[in-house]
Amino acid sequence: MATFEGLGETEARAFTSRWLPAWTGNDPEGLAAFYAEDAVYSDPAVPGGVRGREEIVAYFRRLLGRYPDWVWTNTDVRPLRDGFLNYWHAVVPTRNGVVECDGVCTVSLRDGLITRNEVFFDRSPLLAALTA
């Protein structure tokens, strides 16, 4: 008989309460500390992903440096095998105004660290604000 090895809602919310605030404040090394050495991270800007903590830190340096004051909040979670689905809301200050986005990301964990994080959202409003 198979057993479920994901996080329950309480555990997933507890993890996001520590992890999502690390996306604010331009501390790429602090954020990368949530990721395993062999982790894979992808989002609409890097759909092929970045692999390993070294590549992840380099990507987070660029990303967080560009958006140091954005704020991510959890809006819901759903258990997945080896982790959870994170529903989120982001408030992104840009030079042309604030953009708000909603999306989801998969979070796979091993020994309390993220091994795979795939982020999905429509980034069109953000790109429009950046080019306005």
Helix content: 25-40%
The unreliable regions are: none
- Number of helices, counting only DSSP H or I runs of 4 residues or more: 4
State the assembly state of the protein chains.
single chain
Structural class: alpha+beta
The string of secondary-structure elements, in order, is: HHEEHEEEEH
Distance between the termini: 56 Å
| Amount of beta strand | 35-45%
Mean pLDDT: 93
Q: How many strands, what sense, and barrel or not for the largest sheet?
A: 6 strands, mixed
Described by the principal axes of the CA atoms, the overall outline is globular
Q: Measured on Cα atoms, how large is the radius of gyration? A: 15 Å
Number of strands: 6
Spatially, the strands of the biggest sheet line up as 2-1-6-5-4-3
Q: Can you walk through the features of this model?
A:
The protein is an alpha+beta fold and 132 residues long. Helix content is 30%, strand content 45%. It has four helices and six strands. The protein has helices spanning 9-19, 28-32, 52-66, 124-131, and strands at residues 35-43, 46-51, 71-80, 83-94, 97-110, 113-120. A six-stranded mixed beta sheet has the order 2-1-6-5-4-3. A hairpin with a 2-residue loop joins β4 (83-94) and β5. The chain is globular and about 45 Å long. The mean pLDDT is 93.
